Amino acid sequence: MQKKGAWAEWLSDSLWASVSPRRSAASEAEPSFGPPPSSSSASERESDISRHSLLFAQLSKKEVDLDELRKLASEGIPDGAGIRSTVWKLLLGYLPRDRQSWNEELEKRRAQYMAFKDEFLLANTSEVSRRVEEASKCVKEVIENDINGGSLERGNGAVVEHPLSLGQSSIWNQFFQDSEMVEQIDRDVKRTHPDMNFFCGDSSDAMSNQESLRNALIIFAKLNPGLRYVQGMNEILATLFYVFRSDPDDTNAAWAEADSFFCFVELLSGFRDNFCQKLDNSAVGIRSTLNKLSQLLKMHDPDLWHHLEVKNEVNPQFYAFRWITLLLTHEFNLADTLHIWDVLLSDPQGPQETLLRVCCAMLILARKRILARDFASIVKLLQDYPPTNISHLLYVANKLRAQPSA
């Protein structure tokens, strides 16, 4: 057993202090879904081929063994062939284990999503248009003395809501709230992965993909009035949508909007408390989650924790709020994010604890740099996390699971 405060020997290896070369702009912009690059070693290619074969064999079974699938996926899902798309749907519970039920389940869910679109996007627009027309006619028929309690009363006794009514049940109040929310969603969607032609630009594909993100986020907000839309949700949804829209199966790709919506709902169910401002200071809110990260670092590397939080007063809220709420989508390029999510989604206990271990590993890998800095430079470093080897990062995170104390 190590002495309290001792530095774990397995982390002393220069491997963890090494800095990976920064990716080129091209490699950061678009993850490759083709065969492994020629620069990969023969052993890496063989490993990818082996995992590809094992995953494909598992997905071909009449009933998928989720325990085995999680184990394989946690080691990394090879890009290409639509494997990641199918595996993620299984890991998130969107697809059942029974392979023969997949088509039926997908048809049911996709039909349900189309019903949501009709109810929350098309029908809602028609209702607002009807109310606008009705109110316009009413205003012409009444005089100022007819305005009673925020409503307009016609001569025939019919009451029409005043457009400036602030009542909670007012269609107008709801309309203006929804308009503000939709404007925020539009702004965020247009800023999603600005370096990727898949999401940004004037191409029909990019505009269609933006529209899909917009639709899914609006529907989510309408179905979850207690939470609605919170900035950053677009980044999480975009990761799912990219994987599903890139599926080589044309039918699956065409239904990426519906599939990503339901998987987004499943994924966010484990993190929604982090987005609820009313719960910020509760035992399940974001402050509690940040405190768990602090305690995890203190347990595994008390010296680093002391330098950060005691000596320099750099608490997790200065850097880890975004790490946790956006599931690291803003700290790494999309290709690396996909590999991190392979591990997050593979945890049978859910991704929350694994996410904290990855965040803790990020601090440990930057240990030497952090120890050489003061408050301002530490915050700057962690808010713009340096390039790192994702395989090393995930290895360290896994070691933290196996090393309960330091």
TrEMBL record:
Residues 78-348 form the Rab-GAP TBC domain. One of its GO terms (biological process) is intracellular protein transport. PROSITE patterns: TBC_RABGAP. SMART domains: TBC (SM00164). Gene3D superfamilies: putative rabgap domain of human tbc1 domain family member 14 like domains, Ypt/Rab-GAP domain of gyp1p, domain 1, Ypt/Rab-GAP domain of gyp1p, domain 3. One of its GO terms (molecular function) is GTPase activator activity. This is Rab-GAP TBC domain-containing protein. It comes from Rhynchospora tenuis.
